């Protein structure tokens, strides 16, 4: 009987050590991904990233109140901010709601309540990252089917609302025209303070970004090229990018 008890103790000890070794080994393999902070486009009013990650309680209230279904919650693959809200501008940008409901819904201060209107939003800055693919610069008409991506996203969303339907209606009217989508779809109250189309030396037009840009990501969402020509740099200001560049 004593031999059986001893064998049992030995089995438990070495089994536990084995499991612990596997966990630690797995931790060494996976920890770089677990600890890596993603450089994500956060919702309006998001405070400094480290502070944001500390304050966000992952309640999802901002997602629930967003009328454009712009906000998503990050999963395990996204880094150590699992459950935190972000915006994927390739699918749906932020449409800068006048009352900024996502901020009002945040109970923890991760989204700063001093952000009260679209002009207060500072999510990042738009950049013409791939000018060689910009069809406005080559005077190429907007192709048929350019809006399939936006429709696919909207149709996959439960309870698509009237606001989204109006956006789609406006978006759908550009087929066959010269591309001005990034400028025309800008949702802020004074879009010309953020972006406009200007003549390019090559004979076409190109988007020009101004300091009124809030980094909402709509220009990236509506860009009709396979890979958006214009993208938003998260948590970068106009001064940081364009002043430094000049």
From TrEMBL:
InterPro entries hit by this protein: 4Fe4S_Fe-S-bd (IPR017896), 4Fe4S_Fe_S_CS (IPR017900), PSI_iron-sulfur_center (IPR050157)
UniProt entry keywords in alphabetical sequence: 4Fe-4S, Iron, Iron-sulfur, Membrane, Metal-binding, Transmembrane, Transmembrane helix
Highest taxon, organism lineage: Bacteria
GO molecular function: 4 iron, 4 sulfur cluster binding; metal ion binding
Domain (4Fe-4S ferredoxin-type): residue spans on this chain: 43-76, 83-116, 205-233
Transmembrane regions: 12-35
Protein's UniProt name: 4Fe-4S ferredoxin, iron-sulfur binding
């Amino acid at each position: 009987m004593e031999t059986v008890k001893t064998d049992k103790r030995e089995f438990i000890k070495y089994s536990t050590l084995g499991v612990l070794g596997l966990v630690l080994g797995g931790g060494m393999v996976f920890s770089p991904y677990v600890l890596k902070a993603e450089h994500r486009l956060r919702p309006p009013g998001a405070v400094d990233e480290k502070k944001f990650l500390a304050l966000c309680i992952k309640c999802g209230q901002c997602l629930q109140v967003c009328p454009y279904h712009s906000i998503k919650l990050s999963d395990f693959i996204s880094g150590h901010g699992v459950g935190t809200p972000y915006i994927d501008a390739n699918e749906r940008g932020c449409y800068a709601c006048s009352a900024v409901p996502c901020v009002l819904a945040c109970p923890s201060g991760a989204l700063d309540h001093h952000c009260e209107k679209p002009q207060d939003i500072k999510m990042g800055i738009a950049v013409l990252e791939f000018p060689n693919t910009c069809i406005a610069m080559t005077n190429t008409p907007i192709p048929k089917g350019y809006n399939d991506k936006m429709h696919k996203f909207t149709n996959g969303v439960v309870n698509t609302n009237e606001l989204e339907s109006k956006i789609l209606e406006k978006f759908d009217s550009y087929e066959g025209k010269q591309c001005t989508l990034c400028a025309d779809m800008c949702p802020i109250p004074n879009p010309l303070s953020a972006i406009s189309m200007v003549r390019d030396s090559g004979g076409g037009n190109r988007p020009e970004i101004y300091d009124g840009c809030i980094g909402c990501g709509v220009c990236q969402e509506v860009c009709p090229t396979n890979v958006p020509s214009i993208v938003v740099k998260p948590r970068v200001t106009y001064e940081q990018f364009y002043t430094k560049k000049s």
